[in-house]
Design a protein that fits this description.
The complex is a heterodimer of chains A (458) and B (424). In chain A, 50% of the residues lie in helices and 6% in strands. With 458 residues, chain A is of the alpha/beta class. In chain A, helix 2 packs across helix 4, helix 10 packs across helix 12 and helix 12 packs across helix 23. Chain B folds into two domains: 262 residues, FAD/NAD(P)-binding domain (3-Layer(bba) Sandwich), CATH 3.50.50.60; 141 residues, Rossmann fold. Classes of the chains: A alpha/beta (458), B alpha/beta (424). Chains A and B meet through helix 15, helix 16 and helix 17 of A and helix 6, strand 14 and strand 17 of B. Chain B: Keywords: Flavoprotein, FMN, Oxidoreductase. Chain B: This is Glycerol 3-phosphate dehydrogenase (Quinone) subunit B.
């Protein structure tokens, strides 16, 4: 039975129509400001297709899978006020593959994020090592901010054996992985040195002239570089700027914080909200001025597009979601990118065969085949897909000491395919997938924007 | 600007995949867009052409022979018998791991409910299980998998009068799996042949599974498992189990989520990739521009409308289950282009009182001309550059006839090929 209190008295006969004029629908669940994901839970017809997409359930016998974490947990909550969130929600890696699977559009990852947030804020011990460790991992931007002030020292200290041993023993951060190197000059430092928006406007104008476009063409984008392109791989951010300018776009790099991706995955919704407020406020002002928000990391674009409007109610949030795009996707929509790539060729250090891995977070955005298809006809470089498995790291998941082995087991399929691929250089859009690819194969990992820059920019 | 192609196929099920494949092999620049992952994950993986006539006669021995006497509105009548044959040849070529192409005669396959299903093509993994084979059979169920109760299935099969003895046994799957382990968990263990703990000793999963079955095997010559035997390497797993047990091993297709469906999805997507098509899943087509011709369609991503344009379009969005056909209290409609769907105006005429009655809704879908162009209420084509394929089509009841896959493949093939020819 549903939890409608008393069914109205009727002489219901499933064959004879009896819902004529006397039928009065009853509003069983009144409006509420709390999360109400019941409509989504009700759309689930238990086909379990989501479960076939879960990389964790495939290797972890403690994890009951997305169908349980999502619709089933929500039904339990709905009917039982004392229902506590099952602690297995912390084993979900937030890959969000289940979203792309559901034929009924059940908002699975929204349910997981919400349940995890509730678990962390109401059930988790704030003094526990796990909480402190997760909080530190989720707030990568803070650590990166300080480390980038002293990159050489940080690169040494973060991978200093004894220190890592202590980190594993006291905090549960695996010592198996190498911390990513911090760049000597961040993207934002480079951007400011180069002359910022003014310089970009000049470059864009010159490119429009070269291309025979009207000089005042309304081509402008706001770059959401995220933490990783800023602190660790500024070459990706530089490639984004140069490629966009080549097509005649003026780029701005507005004030921004972490997209929130690692915070969602650790149930730190208050932290995520604080960062989201800054991001939404600076992006929505620019959207009003005719800018589109462009991200080079598929998890950042995913957060701005999907997780923000699903989880937060911030002024301008829907407008930002509607106007956010992944960097290559935007050019595919607005430029003849395919034609230009076909006419181009690559030489130098990017004339390579790449073993490409599509990040899980690119899937819901329909971008998992973009790089492979775009570079099919590029002379001088090959991009080979290494299969549709998850890399296994899922941001902070693979950094946790107790998850490390599961993470490597999930990644095994990708490592094997990388080994069998022609090339010995990897490619992906996602910074943490890149860490896992490098960790498992020893290959150097590049971003599609870098190849695009090599093909299209002088 | 828009994302451009010559042929745009909307829908990633069997109809859409075949359509895109046929168009790509015809030389067209093809793009396939699908709201979510393919509905093949919910399909058994068997490829039926026609098992029963609309009057319920059957199982049919030769489905091709019966096609010319189907009602005129039936999709097979629109494309003709030869197209059905050509389409299946394309399928056979694209999915070499399937069997059944050696004959026009329907094969009889046991289902996980213990009934017998007439089908035209089946995965190699099911072939040792044919019901026409006279070898005695042991079915092995897994205790935790409640949707395959082997003794029950065996009793049902026996009651259908199969020409062999069949018995069912239930085992615990080796290793400490959770009670509701996913089919992919079993498949992954067997694919990687990872070690599992059996009485304190680590044993490779395939060997451990065979050890559980061995003592239960009497003089049966074949053993059937629910379809959990691997995702990437099902052939190697069957061979390994067969070697350990000294008999042939087969899989019984299961309900959703279905590994045979998933493997078929993978095979068709890689054929499509090899043919050079573009593929995008994850977001729905919600709107279009155009009057007599479709100029472009829009894919919705979190409020953004991404334009996609093509010369020719194929609508392969599925039926009620795939949500290519929808209904509410007012009527039955096709949500993307609002193509006309003929249906009774009183919704109480859509269905019959009996559960397995001859429901009209089962045949609801778009009506088309012989070129598969959807027709409006006055029987004119809705758009000159739109064709429909698969279960968005009306005029047939795939569940009763066992014709779902065949209609999707045949109409997908015809729509894709004609779209490609016209795009040039």
């Amino acid at each position: 039975m549903s939890d409608a209190e008393t069914p109205p008295e009727t002489e219901f006969d499933p064959v004879a129509p009896n819902t004529g004029e006397e039928f009065e629908p009853v509003d069983v669940f009144p409006d509420s400001d709390d999360f109400d994901l019941r409509p989504g839970a009700d759309s689930c017809f238990k086909c379990s297709t989501c479960d076939t997409n879960c990389p964790v359930a495939e290797v972890d016998d403690d994890f009951p899978g997305p169908k349980f974490q999502g619709p089933e947990q929500w039904r339990l909550k709905q009917s039982d006020d004392d229902h506590e969130i099952d602690d297995s929600v912390m084993d979900c890696s937030n890959c969000m593959r289940c979203d792309n699977a559901c034929p009924s559009g059940v908002p699975l990852s929204q349910m997981h994020n919400t349940a995890r947030g509730e678990y962390v804020s109401e059930q988790m011990d704030k003094l526990s090592v796990e909480y402190i460790r997760n909080r530190i991992l989720a707030n990568y931007r803070t650590s990166a901010f300080f480390a980038s002030k002293v990159p050489r020292l940080a690169n040494f200290a973060m991978n200093f054996g004894p220190a890592r041993w202590v980190m594993e023993k006291t905090l549960g951060v695996t010592s198996e992985r190498d911390f990513p190197e911090f760049a000597k000059q961040t993207f934002r430092e480079w951007w400011a040195d180069r002359g910022g928006q003014v310089k970009s406007r000049e470059n864009a104008k010159a490119a429009r002239k070269r291309r025979g476009l009207p000089e005042d063409a309304d081509k402008k984008v706001a770059y959401f570089h995220g933490c990783y392109s800023n602190y660790n791989t500024p070459e990706v951010g530089k490639a984004m700027v140069r490629v966009y300018e080549e097509f005649g776009y003026e780029v701005v790099a507005p004030e921004q914080k972490c997209s929130g991706t690692p915070m969602f995955a650790n149930g730190m919704l208050d932290d995520a909200r604080r960062h989201a407020e800054t991001n939404v406020s600076s992006m929505s002002e620019l959207v009003d001025e005719g800018y589109h928000a462009i991200a080079s990391c598929t998890s950042c674009s995913m957060a701005l597009r999907q997780e923000y409007p699903e989880l937060f109610d911030i002024d301008g949030i829907d407008k930002v979601a509607e106007n956010t795009f992944e960097a290559v996707e935007y050019l595919r929509i607005h430029e003849d990118l395919k034609g230009e790539v076909q006419a181009a060729d690559v030489d130098g250090d990017l004339a390579e065969e790449f073993a490409y891995h599509a990040p899980c977070h690119s899937r819901n955005q329909g971008l998992d085949r973009q790089a492979v298809e775009l570079f099919r006809d590029l002379d001088g470089a090959e991009v080979e897909d290494v299969g549709d498995s998850c890399s296994g790291i899922s941001g902070t998941y693979g950094w946790k000491e107790e998850k490390y082995e599961k993470s490597m087991e999930i990644g095994e399929e990708m490592f094997e395919h990388m080994e069998h691929a022609e090339g010995e250089t990897g490619m992906t859009e996602c910074p943490t997938c890149a860490m896992q690819m490098e960790h498992g194969s020893g290959y150097e990992i590049r971003h599609p924007l870098e190849l695009l820059e090599a093909a299209l920019v002088e | 600007m828009a994302i451009e192609s010559e042929v745009l196929v909307i829908g990633g099920g069997l109809g859409g995949l075949t359509s895109a494949l046929a168009a790509a092999r015809e030389g067209a620049d093809v793009r396939l867009v699908s709201y979510k992952q393919s509905t093949l994950r919910q399909a058994s993986g068997l490829v039926d052409v026609l098992g029963y006539t609309p009057d319920g006669d059957g199982p049919l021995t030769d489905p091709y022979e019966a096609i010319p006497s189907l009602p005129e509105a039936h999709p097979y009548r629109k494309v003709g018998v030869q197209t059905v044959r050509d389409a299946l040849s394309l399928f056979d070529d694209a999915v070499p791991t399937y069997e059944g192409e050696h004959t026009d005669t329907n094969a009889l396959l046991p289902t996980h409910g213990g009934s017998i299903k007439p089908t035209a093509r089946y995965p190699a993994g099911a072939s040792a299980g044919l019901a026409s084979d006279t070898r005695d059979t042991l079915l092995v169920g897994i205790e935790e998998m409640v949707d395959f109760d082997a003794p029950h299935v065996a009793a049902h099969l026996d009651a259908t009068g199969v020409p062999f003895d069949v018995r069912g046994e239930t085992i615990r799957f080796p290793g400490d799996l959770r009670a509701d382990a996913k089919v992919t968990r079993y498949a992954k263990l067997l694919d990687t042949n990872s070690e599992v703990a059996v009485r304190g000793r680590m044993v490779p999963a395939r060997e451990a599974l065979a050890q559980r079955v061995n003592p239960l095997l009497e003089d049966e010559e074949r053993v059937g498992f629910p379809a959990i035997l691997g995702d990437d390497n099902p052939g190697a797993i069957r061979d390994a189990l067969g070697d350990h047990l000294g008999v042939d091993v087969f899989e019984v297709p299961m309900g959703p989520p279905s590994l045979p469906g998933l493997r078929l999805e993978d095979a068709l997507f890689s054929a499509l990739d090899e043919a050079g098509a573009s593929i995008e899943t994850g977001n729905p087509v919600v709107d279009f521009d155009g009057e007599d011709r479709i100029e472009k369609v829009f894919i919705e991503k979190n409020g953004a409308k991404i334009p996609n344009s093509a010369d020719q379009y194929v609508l392969a969005t599925g039926g009620f289950v795939g949500k290519g056909v929808e209904s509410d209290r007012e009527g039955v409609y096709e949500p993307v282009f609002d193509c006309h769907i003929p249906h009774a105006s009183d919704r109480y005429d859509w269905f019959e009182g009996e559960l397995f009655g001859d429901h009209e809704f089962a045949r609801y879908g778009v009506a088309t001309d012989d070129d598969l162009r959807p027709l409006d209420a006055s029987e004119h084509s809705e758009f000159e550059n739109l064709r429909a394929a698969g279960s968005v089509l009306g005029g047939y009841d795939f569940a009763a006839e066992k014709s779902g896959s065949g209609v999707s493949i045949a109409t997908g093939y015809a729509a894709g090929q004609r779209a490609a020819q016209e795009a040039r």
